[in-house]
Write a structure and sequence with these properties.
The chain is α/β, with parallel strands linked by helices. The chain contains 11 helices and 14 strands. It starts with 6 loop residues before the first strand and ends with a helix. The structure holds uridine 5'-triphosphate (UTP). The site of uridine 5'-triphosphate has 20 residues, from helix 5.
Amino acid sequence: MSRKVTKAVFPVAGFGTRFLPATKSVPKEILPLVDRPLIQYAIDEARAAGVKEFIFVTSRGKSALEDYFDGAPELEAALHEGKKTALIEALKQTDMDSGAVAYVRQQERRGLGHAVWCARRLIGDEPFAVILPDDVIDAETPCLKQMVEAYAETGGNMVATMEVPHASVSSYGIVDVGGQTGTTMSVRAMVEKPKAADAPSNFAVIGRYILTPNVLKNLEKLEAGAGGEVQLTDAIAQEIGRRGDVHAFRFRGQRFDCGSKSGYLQATVAFGLARDELRGEFLDYLQTTLDSLREPLREKAVARG
Ligand code: UTP
C-alpha cells in the first residue's frame, strides 16, 4: 500500500512578473479572488486531501505570506469587542496548527524544480504533494483529494493534467499517454514547453503533483532545461525510464490560470457569481455591461441592412 501524503510544498518564490507593478510589493499568492487570497484556496484544498504539514518555498519580498498565517491578536480583540461574529469566523480560515507551517527560502530563482528541491530536508523520505497556488481549481471534490484517492490505487508519481488547445501546448509540460484515455493514464514521456509541432499530445500538466522522494534525488543532479530553469517536469520524466511509475490524472473541475491576467479575471467572475450575497447585483452588472457592448454591434448590423 502507498504511504499517505501528509506534506505539501507550495513553491511561491517566483517574481510574478505578469502582475507587475502589483507584485512589486504584494506576493501574487496574496491577490484575492473576491475576499480570499489565492493561497487560502490552495491551503484549503491541501487540508481537504489530508495534508498536515505545509511547506512554503519563499523568497525576498514574500513576508506578507508569512504574516497571513500568523495570529492577529489586536484585530481579533477588536472584532470580538464589536461582536463581529461573521468576520471572526472568516478570520479563522487562516488559523494553522502551531508548527504545521514551515518556510524555506529559495535564494535564487532557478526554476520550479529548484524551488521544490529547496524543500528536500523538510520533505524527507516520503511522498509529498506540490501545489502551485496560482492554479485555482473549482471542483466538487477538491482536485488534490481526487488525486490522493487515485494515488491510493497507483502509488508512484502523479501529475494533474487537462486538455488544452493545441496552439497553447508550448506554455505547458505535455505528457505522452500513447493515445490512452481514462481518468488515470500511464505516462510514456513528458516534455516541458514543446513546440506545437513536436508535442506528443495536448494533455498539459497543471499545478498539482504527488511525487516520490526519488524526484528530489533527480533534482539534485539536474541541469537547467527549458527557459534556462531547473524544470520539475524533467526530474519527473526521469522516473518514467527508471521505474515507469508516472501517472497522468484527469481531474474533474474547472482550472483557472490565476498567474495570467485573463485567467485571474475569469476566476474573479466565476467565484464572484458563486457567492450568494454577490450574485444578484454582480449578475445585473455583467448583464448590463454585455448588453451595452452588444448594442453598437446591433446598430452596425441594422445600418448595414
Ligand atoms: P511561474 O512560471 O508562474 O512564474 O511559476 P512566476 O514568477 O510565479 O510568475 P511570472 O511568470 O513571472 O508572472 C510557477 C510557480 O513556480 C514558482 C512560482 O512562485 C509559481 O508558484 N517558482 C517559479 C518558484 O517558486 N521559484 C522559481 O524559481 C520559479
